[in-house]
Amino acid sequence: RFMDSLKNLQPVVMTIAGSDSGAGAGIQADIKTCAALGVYCTTVLTAITAQNTQRITACEPVSVQMLAQQFDAVTEDFNVAVIKIGMVGSVDNLHYLVARLSDYKRKNSNVFIVLDTPLRASVGFSLLDVNNADLLWKLIRLVDLVTPNLMEAAFLLECAEARSTQMMALQTLQFVERGAKAVLLKGGHLVGDQAADCLLSTDTGAAPVWFSNTKISTRNNHGTGCTLASAIAAQLVLGYPVPEAISRAKQYLHTLLQQSQQRHYGLGSGPLEC
Ligand code: PLP
Questions:
Q1: Is 31 in contact with 43 (CB distance < 8 Å)?
Q2: CB count, 10 Å around CB of 148?
Q3: Which residues pair with 19 in a beta bridge?
């Protein structure tokens, strides 16, 4: 009955992610993206990073206890419709999230979980020290959509990075065969003038769905992954089905990247800013 009373409240996103002091990626990107799309975003911090547009100089994960307290505080008082997971901060936090989310999902089967766990920042800093992918796979099998880039997919599948759209389609199949409910494999790093992402979902059937946009040449692309995943989360809260939510999120990202060509907030790889 308690959960039913929350269902009458405005639906929100709950992001579980790290803080970026330069505010281009992480929690800050998630809040900005959701706000721009008209969706309220609650935040569960996993780690604090000291970073700017050029480098990450320090990273401190929060304790499992603090992570758990934030998770409980948000979920006991908000109508969490979509959970977006970004940087998890530590292997201990990852262990906790696997256990907590599998229990949470059992009790709240309607909540949709988007997973975009970055392993390495574009500037080369490791965001999660996992030696093998097994624990990440436990999380992947729990969530409704996982959004790896080509490098992350290669790590998770223990294979070579895809170098063609054919290879990408094959890898999405491998994700589903290994137990992912749906995967959006992001092909932005593929050579060529198109940024093509491939969705394979156990819901929409056996055929992959492609989302393609012209690549934008800008070095101000810090936080692209976080922004796309939280835009998808926001569009899902607004009621769009998965393929439509992805298509709208990609369009939103495309516009931001175009605008970011003219804005320079730091001396390095700047944020997407409107
Ligand atoms: N810092 C935090 C807290 C992040 O969550 C991420 C990516 O998700 C990054 C840094 C790296 O962002 P990028 O590789 O887009 O520069």
A1: yes
A2: 27
A3: 48
Predicted ipTM > 0.85: yes
Rounded to two decimals, the pTM is 0.96
DSSP SS3 for 191: coil
* Cα angle, residue 78 at apex, residues 74 and 83 outer, rounded to 5°: 70
Q: How far apart are CA 10 and CA 175, in angstroms?
A: 33
Instruction: Give tens-digit pLDDT for 236-247.
Output: 999 999 999 999
Give the chain's domains with CATH numbers: 2-260 (3.40.1190.20)
Q: Which of 21, 31, 45, 87 to mutate to test the pocket of ligand 1 (most atoms within 8 A of CB)?
A: 87
Contact 89 CB / ligand 1 (< 6 Å): no
Pocket test for ligand 1, best of 15, 19, 20, 54 (most atoms within 8 A of CB): 20
